[in-house]
Amino acid sequence: MKIKGFFLCSNWIMSLLLEQCILNTKRTKRWNGSLDTLTADYLNDVVTQMTSYGERVQFGLSGPGQRPNYQVINTFDKKMAFDGNNHLVHPKEDEFVGSNATGILTLEQIKAAIAGVGVKKVAATRTARTSTRSSPAAAKAGDLIDTQKYEYFKSNIQKLPEGIRAHSQEISDLMKKGMSAEAAFGEVIQLHF
Fold first, then answer.
1. Percent of all residues in the chain with a pLDDT value above 90, rounded to a whole number
2. Per the confidence metrics, is the pTM higher than 0.85?
3. For 123, which of 27, 38, 161, 184 is 20 to 30 Å away at the CA?
4. DSSP 123
5. DSSP character at residue 32
6. Residue 10's pLDDT is what?
7. Pick from 47, 167, 52: which is nearest to 106 by CA?
8. Residue 183, Cβ density class (10 Å: 0-12 exposed, 13-18 middle, ≥19 buried)
């Protein structure tokens, strides 16, 4: 009798422990759209696909996980979609539309992110990831454009026309559409100067 009660009691305790473990399970979160949360390994995989299939990329925000789906876009605006493991996929109808996707990024922007502008390293320590200090390296996709625009401006200030600063937003908009900083500055100069 005592043995039977012991087994019932231990089964009850085990079920409580199992239930507690299940309730504490961490689920994968939806990617927040910030390049600084992606690993350099993942972005290197993206670069490999970009060098093969197209020079621009757009990441999807609707999927789960820290390896979001993405589509590579070539010069003819043909698109190839890949999942987080770099396998070809047929994207959902609205997966890369509007608020379900990031802006279009160039190969140079992704390489800059890999070089350390806002990308956590695979071997990053827990304290580095949980730090509340913000640094210039913790940039989002839009910040990469601003960084590249500023670097180009700083490097070429002697050659640029006097009033180019008034067209800063227009240059940013062109870069968000996939132009390099040099091409965006060149187009604005051709249009306004």
1. 24
2. no
3. 27
4. T
5. -
6. 56
7. 47
8. middle
Query: Which pairing describes strands 79-82 and 105-106: parallel, antiparallel, or unpaired?
Result: unpaired
Smallest CA-to-CA distance from 59 within 82, 76, 90 is with 82
Q: Tokens for 154, please give them.
A: 């700083």
Long-range contacts of 80-84 (CB under 8 A, 24+ apart): 80/49, 80/53, 80/54, 82/49, 84/42
Q: Which of 66, 57, 61 is nearest to 39 (CA)?
A: 66
Spatial contact of 57 and 105, defined as CB atoms under 8 Å apart: yes
Widest pairwise Cα distance in the chain = 96
What's the pLDDT at 2?
53
Q: What are phi and psi of 22, to 5 degrees?
A: -65, -40
Please tell me the distance from the alpha carbon of residue 175 to that of residue 105, in angstroms, as a whole number: 8
Cβ atoms of 104 and 176 closer than 8 Å: yes
Quote the CA–CA distance of 95 and 70 in Å, as a whole number: 9
Question: Can you read off the two tokens belonging to residue 76?
Answer: 């003819």
Q: Which residue has the higher pLDDT, 65 or 176?
A: 176
- From 74, 79, 86, select the one nearest 48 (Cα to Cα): 86
Q: What is the pLDDT of residues 103-148, one digit of tens each?
A: 899 998 898 888 875 444 444 433 344 344 444 443 455 677 887 8
CA 6 to chain centre: 54
